[in-house]
Design a protein that fits this description.
By secondary structure, this protein is α/β, with parallel strands linked by helices. The chain has seven helices and twelve strands. The protein has helices spanning 12-24, 58-75, 95-104, 156-168, 179-184, 232-252, 287-290, and strands at residues 2-7, 30-33, 81-86, 89-91, 114-116, 123-126, 132-134, 137-141, 151-155, 189-192, 197-199, 264-267. The two termini are 34 Å apart.
Length: 301
Amino acid sequence: MRTFIINLDRFVERIRRIGEQFEREGIAFERFPAVDGRLLPATDERPVIVYANRRITNSERGCLLSHKAIWDLVANGPDPFAAIFEDDVHISGRLGAFLREVERFEGLEEFADLIKFETTGDLVTLSPKPKIALPGFPLHALLSTHYGTAGYLVSRRGARILSAAADSKVMLADHIFIEEEFRSHGLKVLQAVPGLVMQDQYGYRENLEQLGFDRTVEQDASSRLRSQDLPLNTLLKREARRFGLKAMALLSAAIPAALKGRKVTMRVPFDKTNLPVSGTGSPALDAADMGRDLPDLAGRG
């Protein structure tokens, strides 16, 4: 299985750091030179998805094109899956073991097109029981949006679908994990619990020691749109989803396990095996909220 790390040419320290960590974990990888958004033309004729009340910036387009270039390689390659990483991440000491278990599992592409092993610490909805139980690494169906493309697996079929979507419109790379997006394409998406990768910008949620790297994907305040400029149905869907997730998390704790049904809302924890933690960050999420103790989430919320 090919493993790619996306890295801009000018960020030598990032690839040096993550490369050393991968070597310690016994993970062979290929550095993939990222598309530099600063070098892209200012205009693009394709439709642009409006995201978070603003237009997508060139650096975000560069990020998408970097992922898309890898999707094209995977779609036309011999491997059932490939692993894709961004370079500003914390990784668990069990990441190498996870990737080796993935390689050993025959027929995984029948169950999943995307496997997200990153966590951002946001509330997500999952199947209460694993769809696949790799030894030590349960994989649950992802039933809601879970942003972030800093660590995931993509199948050949998934890569073909994602590449075609990126050809037709300009979007964030993160859009591949928007529920409406992956459902509309018929993509089967699984989530590893706990997560084995966490982007540095979210590390404070787990008291992780900050890496000190500047963000490479800028958000342009001048491109921000007013809410009244957005279609009413877009506003309603966004707000309904936001409040719905919060309500589900609150109600889940009060519902007996036998009545929880087929969904569980929780914060996917990050596996801190062999990882230093900071004493200066925000308080870690409590175990009850994160569902740390059970890979079978039927009784968790």
